Amino acid sequence: MRPVLRYLVVAVPPVALAVLALLHLPAAAIPVFPLLGFAPWLVIRGFDPFLTWLVGILAVVYAFFYTASVAGLFGPGTSLGFIGSAAFIAACAITGLATFRRYGVLTLPGSVVVVIGSYLFLANGLAVPVGVVGQLLIAVGWCAVLFAASRSTERPAPKIAS
Question: CA 158 to CA 141: how far, in whole Å?
Fold first, then answer.
């Protein structure tokens, strides 16, 4: 995938959600929510197959459960929304740790920013201003991770004894 397209895939959904929250358009946000799950999967794609699948499953859990929690669009939401948000945080944290392991310390600031943004999303949904800040942190954090990974020399994968 072209680098510019990767940046757009990780940044556009959270920025779009932030804008929709500021414009008070909750119904328009519903189809955008599941797109947040693509970012951790896209970043970890091509890493260890188990981690790629795990993050993919967590992203799908997020997409199903959070989107089902329509009542919580601008607040913490229901228990379904909590399950979805927790799965999203887990996917982001696993991806952050995997990128750190593969690319080194330069990816940590972006990963931490993503996890903080994800937590703000869990705690506040799209509530203005904290939920909006959370979405913007997610976008900036993923872009920082991609940038750091592109500037870092990949570490070789550790050998697994058979």
Answer: 26
